[in-house]
From TrEMBL:
It comes from the Bacteria. This is Tetratricopeptide repeat protein. InterPro entries: Thioredoxin-like_sf, Thioredoxin_domain, TPR-like_helical_dom_sf. Residues 37-156 form the Thioredoxin domain. Signal peptide: none annotated.
Length: 325
């Protein structure tokens, strides 16, 4: 990753979402509302350096806040392995920079409108929003020194061009707030499902698969377990794969169904969802018998990984139906 120039010439036009002037105005209103809050509530708001953002909260959490502090957006997904490398770096730096920027995490599977609005081509993808204007920073995982360099350039640009310097946060206050939040009672969890998630996060894919299967044996309709099982199986299939060799094998042997399936798996893990679906639909179209059924079943499995309500899944299901019938 090469850090981008922080000039505003690369800004994405968000005028269709909200003009910068309006964002500033609403941010001032939000500041006034916070000032009227009790001190404890103000402190809690001040230490929210990392926030999960959805489409409903985008205006308040990103556009309005961007008039006070640079907002860095991390587009990610649970199944994306590079995201799991980058996100902890961004979260740690958000705490370290102590209010000079805010990190907004957006799950692309749950927020397709935002994914499309920003023109994201693959994940992880990192953008910034300053005074209602969006700036693409970089795509893909990157080592911490390069991420720091980009963030430093962003903060400098925000201060020089917009006079936005963020709000310093007391590290001890932030730590106390996190401890208080962690101490809040949590709803009871399914221990087997929790063990499956822990195994998946630890990279124990075989253990995760077995644990998710155990959950589904007792609860066949458990959607969380179905999603986790699909993710674990997908990651196990691509584990240790040489991407260049896999893609070359598929290009050299278009009729090799296994080779096409392997590339589709790599595409999905890399965030190229439409490419994965398109490849498998084409494979279904030009095959017959067992080969066609193999490609069809794999495509349905990938639908489960992405989620049945995802617009890309809905579109691909329609395309698959046209090919089959």
């Amino acid at each position: 990753m090469q850090p981008r120039n922080m000039s505003m010439s690369g800004a994405v036009d968000l005028s269709a979402v909200k003009a910068a002037a309006e964002a500033k105005q609403k941010a001032e209103q939000a500041r006034a509302q916070r000032a009227a809050q009790p001190a404890g509530q103000q402190a809690a708001a001040a230490v929210q350096l990392v926030v999960d953002v959805d489409e409903a909260g985008f205006e308040q959490e990103v556009l309005q806040r961007s008039a006070e502090v640079p907002v860095v957006i991390d587009f990610w997904a649970e199944w994306c392995q590079p995201c799991k490398q980058l996100s902890p770096i961004l979260e740690r730096l958000a705490e370290e920079y102590a209010g000079r920027f805010v990190l907004a995490k957006i799950d692309v599977d749950q927020n397709q409108m935002l994914f499309q609005q920003f023109g994201v081509q693959g994940i992880p993808a990192v953008f910034a929003v300053i005074a209602g204007q969006a700036l693409p920073l970089f795509q893909g995982a990157a080592p911490e020194p390069q991420v720091r360099q980009v963030l430093d350039q962003l903060i400098e640009a925000a201060e020089q061009r917009f006079g936005i310097v963020g709000t310093p946060v007391d590290p001890e206050q932030a730590a106390a707030a996190r401890q208080q939040a962690a101490a809040q009672p949590q709803p009871p969890a399914n221990p087997t499902l929790a063990a499956a998630h822990a195994a998946l996060d630890a990279g124990d894919l075989g253990g995760a698969i077995q644990a998710y299967e155990n959950v589904l044996a007792d609860e066949p309709a458990n959607l969380e377990a179905k999603l986790g099982l699909g993710q674990a199986r997908l990651l196990k299939r691509v584990q240790g794969a040489d991407a260049a060799k896999v893609r070359k094998a598929a290009a050299d042997n278009p009729s090799d169904v296994a080779a096409q399936l392997a590339v589709a798996d790599l595409d999905l893990v890399g965030g190229h969802v439409e490419d994965a679906f398109s490849r498998l639909i084409s494979t279904v179209q030009r095959t017959a018998g067992d080969d066609r059924d193999t490609a069809r079943v794999r495509l349905l499995e990938l639908f489960e990984v992405v989620g049945p309500d995802d617009p890309r899944v809905v579109a691909a299901r329609g395309a698959l139906s046209r090919v089959l019938f």
